[in-house]
Amino acid sequence: MKKGLDAPLVPIIFTACGLVGMIPAWNSHQLYNFLFPVLMLVLAAIFVHTSYWGKYAIIQQTVAALKIPQNSQVLDLGTGHGAVLLAVAGKLQRPGKVVGIDLWKSADQSSNSLTATQRNIEAAGVSNVAEIKTADMTKLPFDDESFDYVFASLAIHNVKPRAQRELALREALRVLKPAGYLVIIDLEHVGEFKRYLNEQNCRQVSVKRAGFNGLWGWLPTRILVAEK
């Protein structure tokens, strides 16, 4: 599977700060002056680990824990290179289907494109149960109550401002069937998402931390699961 670096500017900044900071630290001949540049390099390494390996482990574990029926209809918001889409597709058989939507912005993930994700789908051999579209999660082109599961992995935090994030959640609930599940894996605004979903009378809204594999520098990934 072709992967991309999430928010590529962030680890670049961490690395640049670390390398530049090494110069005055070296010239000072004082060990404590190395603390900041070393910390920046460590944060960059953790970020890259999570982007290329950690988040995939989290997604696989989350999908496995849900025990998704083979005939489920699933929507993946902000699918990117298709990490969630491919994990779900491996659990489905027709008439089951997973649809991934994205605006394909490379600022959110390097080399992010519909073409690259379509190649990942074909390489995984799941074209019969997986489909991708260009669409905005705040204005979904799907009928009400179309999906058994809606996923959003590291996607909704990119929507700004808060009113637009709430619109994305409202759209997710609109296309979700009664007793369907909304699953959000994210590093920002998860408390905000939980409050909104509780206000919408969702059932069993739970949040848990994802551990080391979900660290983006110092920011932890959290996994929210809500039943409509």
UniProtKB/TrEMBL annotation:
Alphabetized UniProt keyword annotations: Membrane, Methyltransferase, Transferase, Transmembrane, Transmembrane helix
Sequence ranges assigned to domain Methyltransferase type in this UniProt record: 75-184
InterPro entries (alphabetical): Methyltransf_11 (IPR013216), SAM-dependent_MTases_sf (IPR029063)
Coiled coil: none
Top-level taxon in the UniProt lineage: Bacteria
GO term, biological process aspect, one: methylation
Any Pfam family: Methyltransf_11
Protein's UniProt keywords contain Transferase: yes
An example Gene Ontology molecular-function term: methyltransferase activity
TM ranges: 7-26, 32-52
Entry protein name: Methyltransferase domain protein
Species whose genome carries this gene: Limosilactobacillus oris F0423
